[in-house]
Amino acid sequence: MDAPAAQEDGLPPAQRRRAVLAVMLVLAQAVLLAAQVNVALPGIARDLAADPAATVWIVNAYQLAVVATMLPFAALGDRIGHRRVFLAGTAAFGLASAACALAPSLPLLIAARFVQGLGGAATMSVQPALLRFSYPHAQLGRAIGNTAMVVAISTAVGPSAAAALLAVADWPWMFLVNLPLALLGLALGAPALPRDAATRSAADGRFDALAALLNAAAFGLVFVGLYALAARPVLGVVALCGGLAAGAALVRRESGAPAPLLPLDLLRVPAIGLAVAASVCNFAGQMTAFVALPFLLQHDLGRDQVETGLLITPWAVAVALVAPLAGRLSDRFSTATLCAIGGALTATGLALLAALPHAAGTAGFVALLALAGLGFGLFQTPNNRAMLGAAPRARSGGAGGLQGTARLSGQTLGSTVVGLTFLAVPQAAPATALALGACFALAGGAVSLGRRLRADRPVG
């Protein structure tokens, strides 16, 4: 029997708990797996007799699928219902997990990971909209804060969980355990998730397949181009030019559309456009730090891999601790101010890590990294609230897609900057990359200040 339709101001408390549990479970399994896969790459290369360098595409295929299809799935959710897209994505993620576990060769594993990325993109693109329809509007910041906490905890425990699992089982089990988790998510979510039929009036329910293809080409080619730029510059430039051309064609096609797949209408809302720009900056700073820190710790400070994992953990722990508080604060105070403070704290922590890595010592390093993580948690939740809360309810899927696309775009930019830094200044690359990460975070905080208080308030 169908679950009751979502109320204007959230679901009944009992149904809301079940719906949120389903969303958080599916989100946690995707984040956990993303944090675990890197640990298993050497074992996968050995068992499949594959080139270790080629196994990187086990990670890249997933990311490529997500970044290329996040916005199309968000638009699809606005048209046919976010619940349907979420449940279909959860099923695809679980089935692809089983295919990954059974893959007999690297190409088939990469293909299964791409399909798994499609499932992940479907669930992540509509997850913010489902939370918006599940919680009362006055508790939206709390909901986003709890989401950030789940992501941070999953990120923090992912590598350790992978190491523990691989100590007693082979790598296929790392994928196989996601199948029962996906089934549990479906069992919880199918009867409880909100049915948001009121949002399906966008563009009379029609889905623009050509726009979706142009979007996939634009984001996919830019993704490939940025990753290829350092090692194969000609291929990188060609892919980037192709991506930009597809993006220009997409913008021309979408201009004037009432509910475009590429949410140009939402980007014109000051609160949303500035929040997207700030998000790209801060996630670029985060990824710059995450890629550069292992090199700083192992090459410059002489730490081993185990110590490196432990010393990087304080960032995620700080985010997990501060995110729920930041969510509650964002329900009461200006998100622009909170984001500016968070960006400044992250920038301070990264700048000091870049300037004083040798003098800081272990305690000082942990304290500075925790400071950066605290600032990131203080920024992330209010910024996401501003982005989602300022969108009309009928465009909640588009706002959620923007949120995920901004995150992925920033992370791709950050990792690319580190790669270019290693080419430009190889002897001082980690410290230079951290300094650039601080600049990204500071820019994100400054962009947040450009929002006026009225832009923090919802328009629909």
UniProtKB/TrEMBL annotation:
Domain named Major facilitator superfamily (MFS) profile: residues: 19-456
Record's keyword terms, sorted: Cell membrane, Membrane, Transmembrane, Transmembrane helix, Transport
Gene3D superfamilies documented for this protein: MFS general substrate transporter like domains (1.20.1250.20), Multidrug resistance protein D (1.20.1720.10)
Membrane topology: Multi-pass membrane protein
Source taxon at top rank: Bacteria
CDD domains: MFS_MMR_MDR_like
Pfam family, one: MFS_1
Primary location class: membrane
Segments passing through the bilayer: 20-41, 53-73, 85-104, 143-167, 173-193, 205-228, 234-251, 272-297, 309-326, 333-353, 359-379
Localisation per UniProt entry: Cell membrane
Protein name per UniProt: MFS transporter
